[in-house]
Design goal:
Structural class: alpha/beta
Oligomer: single chain
Number of strands: 10
Number of helices: 11
CATH architecture of the largest domain: 3-Layer(aba) Sandwich
Largest sheet: 6 strands, parallel
Radius of gyration: 21 Å
Strand content: 5-15%
Number of domains: 2
Strand order of the largest sheet: 7-6-8-9-5-10
Mean pLDDT: 86
Distance between the termini: 44 Å
CATH superfamily of the largest domain: P-loop containing nucleotide triphosphate hydrolases
Shape: globular
Low-confidence stretches: 160-164
Helix content: 40-55%
CATH topology of the largest domain: Rossmann fold
Length: 307
């Protein structure tokens, strides 16, 4: 293979050719570089798979995407599951203030399409599949485009329970530890000074799930994260807050429920009851959609095998 833009090769190959080594190890091929050329040796099927992976990654590099281990693994899995896959080449991402976020897997692409087309979306699946990250990206993009007036981020504070009031500080300081993953995703999409300013003006609001009762949320983009830890009553209460011009995204992992034994998750009940309801989309992620370190997917598969 020959690549026409030499400036992209350090990103494509990785530091000390680490990206190429990852492809070699995963596909059982040998990659040799000379200038802007890469030679691939191995079985015909694996040589073709490696070629497709390099094509996908080169297209990503041309769009300025930093090719880390997660990107390499996603490209390998996309090629293995869907030969000739155009997942990365076609685009279909989300533009935020700080970055252009693109789906890395077929499951993520379906999720992004659901976020674009539906007013209520459930994202259900294991850790590391981008459920919250992509939801946040869409919310930030819609706020920037004035398609919504505000973003509301919520999570159940299950671990705190009745002890929440004994934690030091005001309400924000009490619930911040439980909402930190939402902050992390937000700051990845928007400069921290802008995020802080918008939080001060109320354009971005952080609210524990328990404090949503009695509200009607108009022209808002609302994310409920870790929804597997909501009770059935809390979930029904939350879903009925949806107001005019609003969108809701509910994310969670049904394998990580922290509710007391015997109490059914509100998320599990909701996806059962609402499956097939017009206007509601339910995206179910699998370990094939994990985009964190490749080990995360293997860990999930190992635990699933024992359950």
């Amino acid at each position: 293979m020959q690549f026409d833009n030499n400036s992209l090769l350090p990103n494509l190959f990785g530091q000390h050719e680490s990206n190429l080594h990852q492809i070699e190890k995963s596909l059982g091929v040998t990659l040799s570089t000379r200038g802007n050329r890469v030679a691939i040796a191995g079985s015909p099927s694996m040589v073709e798979a490696a070629r497709q992976v390099l094509i996908l990654l080169y297209e990503r590099a041309k769009r300025g995407v930093v090719l880390d281990g997660g990107e390499i693994d996603a490209a390998i899995r996309a090629t293995a599951t869907e030969p000739g896959n155009q997942l990365f080449v076609e685009g279909g991402g989300i533009k935020t203030r700080k970055r252009y976020v693109e789906p890395r897997t077929a499951g993520q692409r379906a999720y992004v399409e659901a976020l674009q087309k539906h007013d209520m979306v459930f994202g259900v699946g294991p850790a590391g599949t981008g459920k919250t990250y992509l939801a946040m990206a869409m919310g930030v993009a819609m706020l920037a485009a004035n398609q919504v007036d505000r973003i509301i981020l919520s999570r159940p504070a299950v671990e705190a329970g009745e002890r929440l009031g004994f934690l030091p500080g005001d309400l924000k300081e009490k619930v911040d530890p439980y909402l930190r993953p939402l902050y992390d995703a937000l700051y990845d999409m928007m400069p921290s000074d802008q995020a802080a300013r918008r939080m001060e003006t109320g354009e971005i609001e952080i609210a524990p799930l328990a404090f949503m009762r009695g509200r009607t949320l108009h022209h808002a983009y609302v994310i409920l994260d870790e929804a597997q830890n909501s009770t059935a009553a809390q979930m029904k209460m939350f879903l009925t807050r949806l107001g005019e011009g609003s969108k809701m995204v509910i994310t969670g992992d049904l394998t990580q429920i922290d509710l007391p034994s015997g109490q059914r998750s509100g998320l599990a009940e909701a996806v059962d009851i609402l499956n097939g309801v017009p206007g509601i989309a339910i995206t179910r992620f699998t370990d094939q959609d994990v985009v964190r370190h490749p080990l995360v997917g293997r860990i999930i598969r190992a635990y699933d095998a024992k359950s």
